[in-house]
């Protein structure tokens, strides 16, 4: 591929940080993890950070901490990576899907309100593709019904809602540091909260449920979700680059949108309340056949593409749960007609120009 979906920016400083950590003699969870947690939480205006092995295990830890269990419901989006909904199933609860908005592809707050029942334990919204959700009505609904809000902010590190950073908007927030995310640690995730009691419980949960003051005493059932100091060392360096990454991603989208805004397709956009970090460059065509032709052409020209994530209710592990997929027509249509390409901060101007011209050809093919 001439232009892959992602190309992680791992330089000499990250390599030196890893080597230094390995030479220190302490490579599992330790002081580097603690340093990374504090740095990350401070950046996102949250009080506590609990680093984990992935964004998925961050979500699992968060949902377990608020007591999601058998027969509970969690309202979330049907359009996301399946890892958003899977932790709900891990806890034997049921995901309840609310359709998305057509412009941001974020879960629609007015539909979320209608999905709340006596069994609802939490709302799990996703800041899709780096655009923050309209969080005020989500939080109002949660307060009205006495339930939690867990942000899935895997795409949206550094994004802002009405001037406030993602990660500080709900009761808990979860991030991923997979290789294509806003920053990477190779594999990894983190949970943020400003609730001291929840933070303490999540620290216990990620370490086998072991009492932090009494070795090998396990008052609750926990998991082995600890991040290593090696991964954290990479993350500490990456955090210093984050604002530069965001600036570059925003400039990429500004350029591509300017080149393509006359086409009859939906391009990335930003609502007035939002500061968008544009995790990827996504496009929604008018017809499925147009998308298929465009994707085929792009791949042949060396530009890697991805489907617009998953329409989760149709995935095999979810089909037996009795969802009416016609209740989420906006998400279903976006999934059928949408795709995305790279918005890596590593893209050069010549690569951006090649992407723009090739996308134009792909999207106007007869």
Main attributes?
Aspartate Aminotransferase, domain 2; 15 strands; 366 residues; 2 domains; 38% helix; alpha/beta; 11 helices; globular; seven-stranded mixed sheet; three-stranded antiparallel sheet; single chain; Aspartate Aminotransferase, domain 1
What does this structure look like?
- The protein has 366 residues and is an alpha/beta fold.
- The chain folds into 2 domains: 12-98 and 105-236, Type I PLP-dependent aspartate aminotransferase-like (Major domain) (Aspartate Aminotransferase, domain 2), CATH 3.40.640.10; 243-363, Aspartate Aminotransferase, domain 1, CATH 3.90.1150.10.
- It has 11 helices and 15 strands.
- The chain has helices at 12-24, 31-43, 55-65, 86-90, 109-115, 135-145, 196-205, 229-260, 288-300, 329-337, 349-363; strands at 48-52, 73-76, 79-80, 94-97, 120-124, 148-152, 160-161, 164-165, 172-176, 189-193, 274-275, 281-284, 306-307, 310-311, 338-341.
- The strands form 4 sheets. A 7-stranded mixed β-sheet has the order 1-10-9-6-5-2-4, with helices on both faces. A 3-stranded antiparallel β-sheet has the order 8-7-11, with no helix packed on it. A 3-stranded antiparallel β-sheet has the order 12-15-13.
- The model has no long low-confidence stretch (mean pLDDT 97).
């Amino acid at each position: 591929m001439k232009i892959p979906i992602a190309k992680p920016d791992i330089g000499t400083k990250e390599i030196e940080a890893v080597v230094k950590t390995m030479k220190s003699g302490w490579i599992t969870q330790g002081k580097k993890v603690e340093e990374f947690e504090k740095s990350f939480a401070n950046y996102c205006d949250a009080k506590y950070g609990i680093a984990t092995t992935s964004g998925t295990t961050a979500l699992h830890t968060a949902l377990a901490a608020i007591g999601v269990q058998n027969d509970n419901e969690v309202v979330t989006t049907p359009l996301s990576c399946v890892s958003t909904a899977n932790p709900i199933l891990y806890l034997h609860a049921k995901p309840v899907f609310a359709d998305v908005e057509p412009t941001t592809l974020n879960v629609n707050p007015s539909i979320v309100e209608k999905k709340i029942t006596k069994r609802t334990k939490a709302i799990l919204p996703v800041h899709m593709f780096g655009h923050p959700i309209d969080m005020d009505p989500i939080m109002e609904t949660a307060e009205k019904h006495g339930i939690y809000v867990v942000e899935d902010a895997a795409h949206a590190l550094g994004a802002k809602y009405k001037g406030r950073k993602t990660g500080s908007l709900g009761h808990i927030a979860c991030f991923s540091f997979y290789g294509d995310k806003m920053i990477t640690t190779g594999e990894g995730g983190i949970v943020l909260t400003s609730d001291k009691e929840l933070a303490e419980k999540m620290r216990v949960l990620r370490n086998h449920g072991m009492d932090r003051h009494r070795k090998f005493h396990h008052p609750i059932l926990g998991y082995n979700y600890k991040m290593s100091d090696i991964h954290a060392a990479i993350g500490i360096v990456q955090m210093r680059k984050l604002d530069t990454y965001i600036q570059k991603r925003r400039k990429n989208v500004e350029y591509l949108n300017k080149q393509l805004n006359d086409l009859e397709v939906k391009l990335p956009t930003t609502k007035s309340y939002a500061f968008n970090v544009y995790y990827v460059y996504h496009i929604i065509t008018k017809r499925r056949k147009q998308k298929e032709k465009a994707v085929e052409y792009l791949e042949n020209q060396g530009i890697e593409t991805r489907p617009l994530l998953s329409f989760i209710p149709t995935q095999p592990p979810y089909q037996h749960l009795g969802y009416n997929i016609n209740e989420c027509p906006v998400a279903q249509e976006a999934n059928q007609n949408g795709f995305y390409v790279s918005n890596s901060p590593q893209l050069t101007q010549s690569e951006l120009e090649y992407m723009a011209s090739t996308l134009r050809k792909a999207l106007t093919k007869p």
